[in-house]
Amino acid sequence: MKKPLVLGILFILPLVIYLFFASGVNRFGRLPVLTESFASELSLEYTQIEAKEIFHDKITVLSFLGQEVELMKGYLFNFNQKIYKRFYEFNDFQTVLIAYLNQKSEIDKLLIDLGQITDTTRYKVIYLDETDSTKLFEALETKDSLTSGSSPRVYIIDKNGSLRGRTKDEDEGLLYGYDIRSVAVLNNKMEDDVKVLLAEYRLALKKNYADRK
Q1: Rg (the chain; Cα; Å)
Q2: What pTM value is reported for the model?
Q3: Which domains does the chain have, with CATH numbers?
């Protein structure tokens, strides 16, 4: 009796696990696009660059610090511990911080402090004036708002410069951004969604490789 049971487990269990993950890929294989290629036609006069260059070929977490770097510092440490440290080793992952130029000394301090506990090479800082910062934020077409150029929410941008999020979030319905003041949101929502987007690109890469063979 024991031998057939063991053999059955050895053959059936891997199949069950495969079917579980296969169904997960089908169900959760794509993170919804909420605003398509929002930065494709947007020029940032202050930096004289095309906004789409910031997000080109990267999975980006976009954060607006504006005038409130010191205020946002504690929340960014939440984000750093719960999200950034889990994903920064992926070469196509980056975190973009949008700040006003007069906040450069505060940004320098922030990166020094973060550098004591993590590798900050995936943090990228873009300094914008109020006009361009607002222009970039409004292009996301969310229901959120800025206060002194700052928001406690961060946004997931895909490699095509499209905003990703949730269309059927249990709390908000449409979830455009992730509130980094909430550890629960970071743990239970944002971490999962970044994983889904990374998996989406990994599966697409494997498919393209298999198609070429």
Answers
A1: 20
A2: 0.83
A3: 32-212 (3.40.30.10)
